[in-house]
Amino acid sequence: MANHGVIVGLDVGTSTVKVLVADVRDQQVNVIAVGRSISHGVKRGMVVDIDAAAQDIQAALSQVKEQTNQDFTEVIASIPANAIQMRMVRGTVTSQDSQHISYQDVIAATKSAINIPLEHDQAVLDLTGQDFTVDDLTGVLDPNDMVGSHLTLNATAYVGPRLLISNLRSAIERAGLNLRDLVLAPLAASQTIATDAEQEFGTILLDLGAGQTTATIVQNHQIKFISTYGAGGANITKDIGTVLSISNQDAEQLKLDAGVAAPQFANEAHLLTVNPVGKKPIRISELELSEIIGARMQQIVTKLGERLDTVSAFQLPGGMIVSGGSATLRHTQDILQAAYGINAKLFMPHEIGLQNPAFVGSWALVNYAAQQTKVALIVKQAMLGIPITVEPKTIVAPKSDQYIVRKTVEPNEEDDMRRFRQTGPESSSEKASKPTIVERLKLWFSELFN
């Protein structure tokens, strides 16, 4: 395996930045420190303010440094699944010494494989499912030091907006960190939170994040479908603040303390005190709060359900695994099971201090890294243009701007490509302002889905 020692996972999200430090021995992960800071430079999963994101990363990192009394300089970070396409790619090279395959040949094959035609604003974000062919021997997992003259890499490339990767890398570097790897968030989750049987027979992974909600289908141990809807927990918080005329901070706290995912599960007798801006405190019921939350939740569930239904996702035997910070809303599983007619279970790490679905992203990163083989890491670092250390010498990988090279795809190669496109983020912006709660709710619900 490529990993033995300390691994630092970095999850730069819309609402929070999380850092997990884990000690890895024989693929066993022991989390030793956790850092968390409020995120200011990210919108719908994408870094939009590099300086702000860098400061937030440093703030979270300082917490784990204090906990461990150690400095950390290298991280593995997650990439959101915005507008992702999947393509089968292949790269073939001739061995440099003509007798034995080396990691230099693996790097060259990687460069060849990602040399695919792309739009100017697109980039290869991740590369997985690698297997090699040495001369006529297929299904090779690690070709290093094998006797052979030709090496072919077969893999799945995940293509998406270049800004997803470039802005995040800039923020990480500006925070004074080196990048070990970038991993597509659904890819890390699919290989860590789903059991082997769920990965084999087919399961839906639903990540209820702050800025967006992502549905992923994994089957036969491969990602088959990704779709992201541009609304999440932050939108729910904004809805609460708009309807009740309270600050975003108060709305978030109200959601966490008393939020229910749907009105049918709310307690009308449970009264809550809120403080509208510029007005006296008022009392609302848990039912009224749940109507605000439930309207947005229903929108998210309906939109993603329509997309999942087009690929017969609800016929998969593995049901649904739910994660993300918004999954903490009470009765979230109930509304998903009722809407989709399948079993939905909540996943959260078992480690002390991490027993919250909001930590699944960073937890999945370090566990994914713990399972990663040496050759898989070399392929990824070659793709990203990161210097690769392989004893007894250091291999210099191509620079990051060298791996977006255009070439013409032959018809037979194009026929072999499997593409799955994700619909881009979308959301509505709604506002309501009426003197009373009831009038605000009526206007809110009438406008919400327009």
Automatic annotation (TrEMBL):
Residues 414-434 are annotated as: Disordered. One of its GO terms (biological process) is FtsZ-dependent cytokinesis. SUPFAM superfamilies: Actin-like ATPase domain. It is found in: Cell membrane. The keyword Cell membrane applies. It is a peripheral membrane protein. Residues 7-193 form the SHS2 domain. Signal peptide: none annotated. HAMAP family: FtsA. This is Cell division protein FtsA. The gene is ftsA.
